[in-house]
Amino acid sequence: MGLDIVLINPGDRRQAHQDLGKDYSGIEPPFWIAVQAAYLRKRGFGVAVIDSNAENITPEETAAMVGEMNPLLAAVIVYGAHPSASTQNMTISGKICRAIKDLTAVKVALGGLHPSALPMTTLKEEAVDFVIEGEGPLSLVALLETLRAGRNDFSNVPGLWYEQDAIVLHTPRAPLISSLDAVLPAGAWDLLPMRTYRAHNWHCFDDISSRSPYGAVYTSLGCPYSCLFCCINAPFGKPGVRYRSPRLVVDEIGVMVEKYGVRHLKIIDELFILNEKHYMAIADLLIERRYDLNIWAYARVDTVKPVHLDRMKKAGINWLALGIESANPAVRDGATKRMQTGDIASVVRTIRDAGMSIIGNYIFGLPDDTRATMQETLDLAMDLNCEYGNFYCAMAYPGSRLYDIAIQNKWELPATWHGYSQLSYETLPLPTKHISAQEVLKFRDQAFLRYFSNTSYLDAIERKFSTHIRRHIEEMTTLRLKRRILGD
Q1: Which neighbouring-strand residues pair with 361?
Q2: Does residue 59 contact residue 95 with C-beta atoms inside 8 Å?
Q3: To 10 degrees, what angle do helices 437-453 and 455-464 make?
Q4: Residue at a domain's end among 129, 144, 170
Q5: Pairing state of beta strands 160-164 and 130-132?
Q6: What is the pLDDT of residues 144-157, one digit of tens each?
Q7: CB neighbours of 357 closer than 8 A, spacing ≥ 6?
Q8: What predicted TM-score, i.e. pTM, was given to this entire model?
Q9: What distance in Å separates the CA atoms of residue 135 and residue 120, rounded to the nearest whole number?
Q10: Parent domain of 149
Q11: What is the per-residue pLDDT for 335?
Q12: Residue 13 pLDDT
């Protein structure tokens, strides 16, 4: 069987993370590529994968590999394991597409979250033959069948943008996948460089010398909420959640554990702790298997149920990431995230009492933020003293309502796609109604240093983990990000 498609995972760790990408950030397996590869293989296509991000190879090296493989189609899938990861990777994705077009005769498709949010822009800007709008698997099957048959009529391929005779054409999106188990089987992990993936530094505070192997899995797709700043539902077209079966999920985790030695695992779902029947079925199956796992997953303050925490911990869920965003109720409500500060503190205490650790996620620069409200958020973060904190600037990610608002109001947006990365030199956050983008970014960077240099935080980390981890964090804070808009 000849090779029909090579799926490419793009990435440029240096550009996206600066020096923090060397030792502190994770290198995550591209789950979306793994399951699409498995589905296409199941449908009888010859499939290969190039993980340019994990292998840390150049666009030209990627193109050379594609040329040697000579597939019918090279598909660059710009997804990522968090909402911001797609847009920030569009710069390197464009370079990979250009290199393939320049160095090979292979047709090129670009799909994922960002291309689904801006399909017309993507088709016009990038050196590609096709842009895939929507989830992707059903579109890829139809596209490959058409290419195999040697036809130039793509009107039956759903969710496809392309040009014919200098005219842009596009077809309606494919219907949302109705059976995730059928279309998202266990990933084709044998096609990925499993040895190269590593967990984030904080995920392994219990044993930071052993961050690999690292696995990632979706147990559901989508989110029922419509937060102003989030673009996660762009490939799906609307809010909502669909689930893979708990048995399939745990069987897939079993493959990672037993075949690849994975212990550290990320559950990628935008909101894993939501449907009790679903996530507790997974937890109970993991308890039965007695895997020694170190798992982290996303939750909302208002979805955490104390009654389940002990069993979740027993299943290996050691970290929960909470979307706290802002301490100020007016700022939070403007982002459609309603909760009370007292509730946040109570939930944090309850999670800790169950023996779990917490990543607090905070956003500076939401539309109603002032310097005073951002300070409230930093004060809350330091009071909660979570085992780790992620500090973000509000960004108008394509596919979010905030992006539409920014376009309508003609707010300045990053000049490059990698300017949407939170940690890049070119980062350009949004201004608020009251303060400039420069003030927001400067506050965020100072907040990061204040939090991780705080003696109360460092003492707590040393008590819970070790003196070694305290020193690790102290070393991390010596790496200062350079920012173009701050004159660095």
Answers
A1: 323, 390
A2: yes
A3: 50
A4: 170
A5: antiparallel
A6: 999 999 999 999 99
A7: 205, 318, 319, 320, 386, 387, 388, 464
A8: 0.93
A9: 17
A10: 5-170
A11: 46
A12: 61
Task: Give the chain's length.
Answer: 488
Under a CB-based contact definition with an 8 Å cutoff, are residues 322 and 297 in contact?
Answer: no
Dihedral sign from CA coordinates of 245, 249, 252, 254? negative
Identify whether residues 156 and 293 lie together within a single domain. no
Please report which confidence band the pLDDT of residue 22 belongs to, taking 50, 70 and 90 as the band edges: low
Q: Which two tokens stand for residue 387?
A: 């085992």
Q: What is the token pair recorded at 358?
A: 């917490």
107: number of Cβ within 10 Å: 18
Q: Which residue has the tokens 């990320």?
A: 266
The whole-number pLDDT of residue 192 equals 97
Alpha-carbon gap, residue 210 to 194, rounded angstroms: 15
Q: Is there a domain that residue 479 lies in?
A: yes
Among residues 340, 339, 337, 357, which one has the least CA distance to residue 348? Answer: 357
Residues 140 and 275 in one domain: no
Check the CA dihedral 274-277-278-281 and report its sign: positive
Does residue 49 contact residue 188 with C-beta atoms inside 8 Å? yes
Range of lowest pLDDT (179-193, 245-259, 340-354, 460-474):
340-354
Give the residue from 353, 286, 292, 362 showing the smallest Cα distance to 321.
Answer: 362
| CATH assignment of the domain containing 401 | 3.80.30.20
**CA 195 to mean position of chain CA atoms:** 20
Residue 175 placed within a domain:
no
Which element (helix H / strand E) includes 220?
strand 220-221
Q: Would the pLDDT of 447 be above 80?
A: yes
CA angle 171, 173, 177 (to 5 degrees): 145
Q: Could you tell me the two tokens for 272?
A: 């894993």
- The angle subtended at Cα 189 by Cα 80 and Cα 278, nearest 5°, is 70
Residue 448 clears pLDDT 70, i.e. is over it: yes
Q: What is the spatial distance between Cα 175 and Cα 238, in angstroms, rounded to a whole number?
A: 12
Compute, in degrees rounded to 10, the torsion defined by CA atoms 307, 310, 314, 315: 30
Max intra-chain CA distance, the chain: 67
Beginning with the edge strand found earlier in the chain, give each strand of the sheet holding 264-267 in spatial order.
Answer: 214-217, 264-267, 294-299, 317-325, 357-364, 388-393
* 292 burial via Cβ count (<10 Å: 0-12, 13-18, 19+): exposed
Q: How far apart are CA 215 and CA 179, in angstroms?
A: 23
Give the residue among 427, 390, 357, 298 at the shortest CA–CA distance from 25.
390
Confidence of residue 21 (pLDDT cuts 50, 70, 90): low
Report the alpha-carbon distance of residue 118 to residue 161 in Å, rounded. Answer: 11
Strand-pairing partners, residue 49, are 7
